[in-house]
Write a structure and sequence with these properties.
The complex is a heterodimer of chains A (109) and B (113). In chain A, 0% of the residues lie in helices and 50% in strands. Chain A is an all-beta fold and 109 residues long. In chain A, the strands form three sheets. In chain A, strands 2, 5, 6, 9, 10 and 11 form a six-stranded mixed sheet that branches. In chain A, strands 3-8-7 form a three-stranded antiparallel sheet, with no helix packed on it. In chain A, a hairpin with a 6-residue loop joins β9 (83-90) and β10. The mean pLDDT of chain A is 93. Chain B has no helices and eleven strands. Chain B has strands at residues 5-7, 10-13, 19-24, 31-38, 42-50, 53-57, 64-68, 74-78, 87-94, 103-104, 108-112. The chains are: A mainly beta (109), B mainly beta (113).
C-alpha cells in the first residue's frame, strides 16, 4: 500500500534562511508526487508536481527514487511562505491522492 | 473560471442525524473526489466519482456514501452521525478520471454535538 511520511509536524526558520521540508514515500509503482500548500484561511492549492520540474515561488522539489524522497526546498525563506505544506502521492488508477500528515512552516522575521 | 464550490460552509448536527454535503466542480471537470480532514488523521480519501460512477473508495464505513449527477456535481451523505465524524470535508475536482492536478474547494466544516 502507498504511504507518505512527513517527519516534521512543525518547522520554524528565520527569514532569509534556507528551508527544507522532508517527504518520504512508499509505493510499488511509478510515483507521481505533489506538494500542496494551505495558507491561513485559504483553500488547499497545488504548489509543485514532480513531472513539471519547475520552480514555483522559489520552491523546488526533486524526486529521488533511490531514497524514495521528494523533499521541498527553498534557498531563502520569506515570511509569506508561512503555511501548512502537504506532500501527496497519486495512484496510477484514478485521481486519488494519498497525503502526508503535513508540516506547518513558520518563517520568523 | 469559478473554482470548486462547496455548500454549506458550516454545519452543526447531533449524533444519530444524517447530513448531505454538496460540491460543484470547476466547469468542464468531470472527476470529483472527497476527502476528510481532521487534526488527528490529516487528509484521508473518502471516494472518487467519474461519469456518475464511484471509481475508488477509501477505508470508511458504509455510513459514508456519495453520488454524482450528470452535470458532474456531487453530493456526499453521512448517516447516523457520530462525534468522530466532526471534520472538514473537502471536495476536489480534476479534468478527467486519473487526471492531475486536483483543485480543492474551501470545504464544509461539520460539527457533531
Amino acid at each position: 500500500a502507498q504511504r507518505v511520511t512527513q517527519p516534521e509536524k512543525l518547522l520554524s526558520v528565520f527569514k532569509g534562511a534556507p528551508v527544507e521540508l522532508k517527504c518520504n514515500y512508499s509505493y510499488s509503482g511509478s510515483p507521481e508526487l505533489f506538494w500542496y500548500v494551505q495558507y491561513s484561511r485559504q483553500r488547499l492549492q497545488l504548489l509543485l508536481r514532480h513531472i513539471s520540474r519547475e520552480s514555483i515561488k522559489g520552491f523546488t522539489a526533486d524526486l529521488n527514487k533511490g531514497e524514495t524522497s521528494f523533499h521541498l526546498k527553498k534557498p531563502f525563506a520569506q515570511e509569506e511562505d508561512s503555511a501548512m505544506y502537504y506532500c501527496a502521492l497519486a495512484q496510477t488508477s484514478g485521481s486519488r491522492l494519498t497525503f502526508g500528515e503535513g508540516t506547518q512552516l513558520t518563517v520568523n522575521p | 473560471k469559478a473554482g470548486v464550490t462547496q455548500t454549506p460552509r458550516y454545519l452543526i448536527k447531533t449524533r444519530g442525524q444524517q447530513v448531505t454535503l454538496s460540491c460543484s466542480p470547476i466547469s468542464g471537470h468531470r472527476s470529483v473526489s472527497w476527502y476528510q480532514q481532521t487534526p488527528g488523521q490529516g487528509l484521508q480519501f473518502l471516494f472518487e466519482y467519474f461519469s456518475e460512477t464511484q471509481r475508488n473508495k477509501g477505508n470508511f464505513p458504509g455510513r459514508f456514501s456519495g453520488r454524482q449527477f450528470s452535470n458532474s456535481r456531487s453530493e456526499m451523505n453521512v448517516s447516523t452521525l457520530e462525534l468522530g465524524d466532526s471534520a472538514l470535508y473537502l471536495c476536489a475536482s480534476s479534468l478527467d478520471w486519473g487526471y492531475q492536478p486536483q483543485h480543492f474547494g474551501d470545504g464544509t466544516r461539520l460539527s457533531i454535538l
